[in-house]
Each structure stands twice: as C-alpha cells, then as structure tokens.
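Sorry to interrupt, but I need a hand with the structure work. Go ahead and set the record down below:
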Amino acid sequence: MSIQIIFRIAAVGILVSILNQVLKHSGREEQAFLISLAGLILVLFWIVPYIYELFQTIEQMFAL
C-alpha cells in the first residue's frame, strides 16, 4: 500500500468537509448528506481491494 492512497483519502475528506459545511450553512442539509455519502462510497471503493488483499494474505498465512 502506497502513501498516495492516504493522501487521496485525506484530500477527499477535506473536500467533503468543506462542501458539507458550505451546504449546511446555506440550508441544504440533504445535499450535504449526499455529498458525505458519496465521499464515503468513493473511499470505500478505493479501500476494498486492499482489504481483499489483506484477507488473501491472512488466508495464505494460515493455509485455510
């Protein structure tokens, strides 16, 4: 796992947090929620391959 993925996740977190605050202050709580949800789904799509690789490594380690 490279450090680049950590920077990408941090950038998405900062961007989502700024957009969330702007939308909440303008009275658009629904759109703020959807932006947060979209950011979460995007990060999950990036992380799922690493989680899969982790479980494959654990399976090989214990020869299951």
Remarks:
- The radius of gyration is 16 Å.
- The first helix runs from residue 3 to 25.
- The mean pLDDT is 93.
